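Review form for a predicted model. The reviewer records the input and the model, then writes brief findings.
Reviewer: anonymous (R2)
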Amino acid sequence: MRRQAYTDFISAGKQLSSAQWKLADIMWDKDSSPSEWQDRFIVVHDAWAVFSTAAAAVAVAGPDSVAESAETFRTAMLNVERAVMTWLNKARDVGNGHLHEYEQAFKAAMREKRQPDRDFQAAARSALQTEA
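Model under review:
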């Protein structure tokens, strides 16, 4: 059960991250339109729901050390989500997603989520006793 919960969480995190990057890429494209942004937003929203569900499964599967690590990673992904949504909302306001300040905030949040991602994977390996 734990292995499946951890694997699902890692997979959902990668899918969410990919969806967020695709939204960012399309907003940065000067030729993109608000309807294209909306289409990508829906994909991000759906990916967030899957990720959130997977995080809850890890919390149930435990142990506490892995659940805490998952929560730290979930919080980091929430920061990415906030950055991309702030960017999207501003893009909608101005009709253009080519907004350097918001792009930079998004990229910073993406960088900041890397360590919590690695930490979760290490905690999962430890709980599963798969370290050689």
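Findings: The longest helix spans residues 64-94.
Further findings: The CA atoms of residues 87 and 102 lie 5 Å apart.
Recommendation: see findings above.
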